[in-house]
Amino acid sequence: MMTKTAIISFDSDNKAVMKIIDGLKSMGVIKFEEYPYNPAMVEKIKRGDKAIKEGKGIAISPRHLWK
């Protein structure tokens, strides 16, 4: 048997989605693991977003990075 890994983002507060995932887990169809982001990286991103909102940073569109 060949296994594949898929990364899926979803709203864990959505009861219908969680019911489907729980059903698939109980049938042994999927293995569900949570991989949280590195808290230090999340904090850096939040600080950057806050700096931009306060006018202390420069927002660069990804379209313009390689021009």
Structure description:
40% of the residues lie in helices and 0% in strands. It has helices at residues 15-26, 39-53. It has one domain (15-64). It is an all-alpha fold. It has two helices and no strands. The longest helix is centred in the last third of the chain and has 15 residues, at 39-53. The chain starts with 14 loop residues before the first helix and ends in a 14-residue tail after the last helix. The model has no long low-confidence stretch (mean pLDDT 84).
Count of domain modules? 1
Structural class: mainly alpha
Distance between the termini: 46 Å
Helix percentage = 40-55%
Strand content: under 5%
Low-confidence stretches: none
Radius of gyration: 19 Å
Kindly state the mean pLDDT as a whole number?
A: 84
The number of helical elements comes to 2
How can the largest sheet be summarized? none
Order of helices and strands: HH
Overall geometry: elongated
Number of strands: 0
Topology:
Blueprint: H1 15-26, H2 39-53
Short structural summary:
Helix content is 40%, strand content 0%. By secondary structure, the chain is mostly helical.
Keywords:
67 residues, mainly alpha, 0% strand
